[in-house]
Write a structure and sequence with these properties.
The chain is an alpha+beta fold and 160 residues long. It is built from 3 helices and 8 strands.
Length: 160
């Protein structure tokens, strides 16, 4: 009888522990996830508040900064993509008259971009190891900042 009780107790503990996993979250982890979700919603709504003209301007400035070119040579065209306002930014490089094209969209205060070659969109620069491109729009000016993995940064301000 004692042996059966011990076997039952061991089986019960094993079943209870099997229901436990590393995926369970503490209340502070749930609160942290809720905070992140609210921050993401705020970031997305900030982008949603921008006009098409603002998105055009920010993307042209960002690509000019990233590529080390004059914003005046940047041309912007909307690209039809579901749920995102993606801009196609292209320019002709003056030194050799070659056309270069990138795609760009805004998420919060981040600029996400990808190169386009022969009509094929390349890798979106949104990996944690990529430099971070931030923007701050204020009236007719935008400041674009590139923050690199080593902590260094460069920024420039552009006027409409």
């Amino acid at each position: 009888m004692m042996r059966a009780s011990r076997l039952f107790a061991i089986t019960f503990v094993a079943l209870v522990c099997a229901g436990c996993s590393e995926d369970t979250q503490t209340s502070s982890e749930v609160a942290s996830n809720d905070d992140r979700s609210q921050n993401n919603q705020a970031r997305l709504s900030k982008t949603a508040d921008l006009s098409s003209s603002d998105i055009d301007f920010v993307c042209r400035a960002a690509i000019a900064e990233i590529m080390g070119r004059d914003i005046a040579i940047m041309e912007a065209t909307k690209v039809a993509v579901e749920n995102k306002q993606i801009m196609q930014i292209s320019y002709v490089r003056p030194s050799d008259n070659t056309r270069w094209t990138q795609h760009c969209y805004l998420e919060g205060d981040d600029v996400i971009w990808a190169g386009v070659e022969n009509g094929v969109v390349g890798r979106w620069r949104n990996h944690p190891n990529d430099e971070s491109i931030k923007f701050k729009l204020s009236g007719d000016k935008v400041t674009i900042s590139q923050i690199f993995g080593d902590g260094s940064s460069i920024s420039d301000t552009f006027s409409r």
